[in-house]
Amino acid sequence: MSNHLFSPIQVGSLSLANRIIMGSMHTGLDHSEDPFGRLAAFYKERAEGGVALIVTGGVSPNEQGLISPGSMKLTNVEQLPSYKIITDTVHQAGSKIILQILHAGRYAKQTDLVAPSAIRSPINKFEPKEMSEQDILNTIADFVNCASLAQQAGFDGIELLGSEGYLLNEFTALRTNHRTDRWGGSLENRARFALEIIRAIRQKLGTEFYIQYRMSVLELVEGGWNIEDAQQFAKLLESAGVDLINTGIGWHESSIPTIAMQVPRAAFSWATEKIKQLVDIPVAAANRINTADVANKIIQQGEADMVYLSRPFLADPNFVIKAQQQRTDEINTCIACNQSCLDHLFNFKTVSCLVNPRACHETLLPKLPPAASAQNIAVIGAGAAGLSFAIEAKKNGHHITLYEANTEIGGQLLHAVKVPGKEEFNELLRYFRVMLKKYNINTQLNTKVSLEQLKHGQYDTIVLAAGVVPRLLDIQGIDSPNVFSYEDAFRSPEKIGQTVLIIGAGGIGYDMAEFLTHQDDNMQPIDSFNKSWGIDPTGLQAGALDPSVNRMLKSKRDVTLLQRKAGKFGRSLGKTTGWIHQAELQKCGVTLLGELNYLKIDEAGLHIEKDGIAQVLAADSIIICAGQESRDELTESLKNITNNVYTIGGAKEVRELDAAQAIRDGIELAYTLNT
Ligand code: NAP
Ligand code: SF4
Fold first, then answer.
1. Other C-beta atoms lying within 10 Å of the C-beta of residue 36
2. Which residue ranges have their beta carbon within 6 Å of ligand 2?
């Protein structure tokens, strides 16, 4: 890779060794028992991994700006020693760190919230109070105070969060700012609040103090501004003395995905380029930049001067150093699943990462020294659980033999990669393959290991990670030739007919519906994404939305998704991504039918009972996606070989099993063996 990503850059007063900024992330650690210690440990590993500049998670400049009660704030000098734990640690590790100032505005999940106008957000139940002139002046003073405290705490500067629909963005948007005073109306008036804050910080802290501004470029909401307004605002930011413009995409209340797996990589860097063309200060691109290649290309093509990556640093703290040393295939890539980061956050749990359960848990799962005595370990099953255990245990010094009945590794992940929009799971499989090779792990593919073999192997420990089997249903006619397990359907879609019934509307039922309806449109991924979500690729329409676009997609098959229970479909889907799956199915015309019982299957189709009435649903093919059962039948016999038998992943527990749980199980067992 040519070294665009690794050419040094001067940004304001900061000399940076490379073009990669570790972006701001909410971690949920603010609510932990040791927030600053754990945050320092989290940032330290990333700083040691070579990142040039770190941006903290959002910190409020006052009580009203808190995103929720108990979130981070920096409002007085008593808090400085806590923040110094972070800045000292990061500086000792060789990176720079800036504080992100985030005033949540009408997104604050608390009763005392404010906004330019008293308009409630559709994603918040709390109604904001309209800010008075005095409230506005006080808030400007709070921003300046926070920036000054950040400087005293040793931060190398600040980022002002002016995108995603938070307070600063609420002032610039007509959608949320209905004021008729000098803070509302014209763009100049709406920009005044942000510009006054920047000017006041400059006046107090001087020209050397580093200020980065995250502005909203594509709003992706009705009544949002267009790219020309964004360009004009960028010019105003530049003349007010901002050192770098970072480009935010979409509001949190937007009904267009902006960071999920379904969003193509670098889907919005074209919009960043439109800002870069107009200003002389450096500009950073963000959103769905998850590989060094994609990041490098953005810089190389001149779309941005820097890249702003957040979740990729949850997935791999050593992203930068691996990229710099041409070891990109060793990077544990963020697959944009949101499962263990944003979904955790919205479920009030500490953030982590599906592919790296140590993320934000560095002090709880510290780096271990090699095992005092190496064990000889057999691992049965090379799915997510077995693979992550095998790799971690080998790193810790144990001797591993990994048995897999299939001809390739991956287990259930091999189905996931076939689902449209879930191709990023291929990166996880690539990472596992590279790690097996790097650590020279004895992997026996195509081997249904026997008890005899295991006895011969003289293993100290056996780890059963044999995964799951699809649940068999007790319905008359289930053996009919037109009934398929989800495994069969993923393997041989050519056998599936035109009219399809899917029994079971869990995660796999939804995946199956997307898999079977998807029709390739032969467009470039970003063009196809823009069209299917109604994004105006010129950015010239309000909010960069094109309401004239027909979002319906051509569907390859007629699919009906069935569930027995009453109520909403898709309740088991991810908190932050479930709505995307729902929308995709709707676009493909998938029918949802619930609150029913299955009676039998015959040549007429699937007989069901709904609302007390028996009826027949005709189908060419019926696919069973009714959950799984553990493949754990070996457990008892293994105990005759050694006392040390452990069961992990789906073989242990299928309830609430997903790839995140399987990987976590594997890593945690490896830790248990060494502590
Ligand atoms: P699941 O989420 O447990 O869903 C299976 C569905 O089948 C249930 O919702 C249930 O709904 C139905 N069912 C269960 N027993 C049945 C029976 N005896 N007869 C008829 N229907 C029955 O299982 P899954 O879809 O296989 O997913 C497995 C795991 O992978 C889950 O933890 C899931 O979170 C994860 N996953 C998630 C995603 C995603 O979020 N996109 C994608 C793939 C997998 P009714 O009883 O109401 O019919
Ligand atoms: Fe990326 Fe998924 Fe990890 Fe979040 S949980 S950082 S989206 S891989």
1. 19
2. 311, 314-315, 334-341, 353-355
Distance in angstroms (rounded) separating the CA atoms of residues 62 and 70: 12
State the first-to-last Cα distance of the chain, in angstroms, to the nearest integer. Answer: 40
Residues 252 and 305 both lie in one domain: yes
Residue whose CA is at the smallest distance from ligand 1 atom 17: 626
Whether 41 and 177 share a structural domain: yes
Regarding whether 46 and 187 lie in a shared domain, the answer is: yes
> Which of ligand 2's atoms lies nearest the C-alpha of 339?
5
Q: Could you read off the pLDDT of 528-557 as tens digits, one per residue?
A: 999 999 999 999 999 999 999 888 888 999
Structural domain count, the chain: 3
Alpha-carbon Rg for the chain in angstroms? 27
Q: Probe ligand 1: pick from 486, 579, 658, 663, max atoms within 8 Å of CB?
A: 658
Q: Would you place residue 370 in the very low, low, confident or very high pLDDT band (cuts 50, 70, 90)?
A: confident
668 token code pair: 């945690």
How many angstroms is it from 667 CA to the middle of ligand 1?
A: 25
Expressed as residue numbers, the domain containing 560 is 483-519+555-626
600 and 641, same domain (yes or no): no
423 C-alpha vs ligand 2 centroid, how far in Å? 14
Is any atom of ligand 1 closer than 6 Å to the C-beta of 582? no
Structure tokens at 12: 């304001």
* Protein residue closest via CA to atom 44 of ligand 1: 507
Burial pattern 162-186, b for ≥16 Cβ within 10 A else e, equals bbbbbbbbbbbbebbbebeeebbee
Boundary (domain end) residue, out of 626, 643, 662: 626
Tens-place pLDDT, residues 609-664: 999 999 999 999 999 999 999 998 888 899 989 999 999 999 999 887 899 999 99
Q: What is the CATH number of the domain that holds 410?
A: 3.40.50.720
Whole-model pTM: value is 0.96
CATH of the domain at 109: 3.20.20.70
Catalytic residue positions? 166
Are the CB atoms for 604 and 616 separated by under 8 Å?
yes
Ligand 1 centre from 620 Cα, in Å? 22
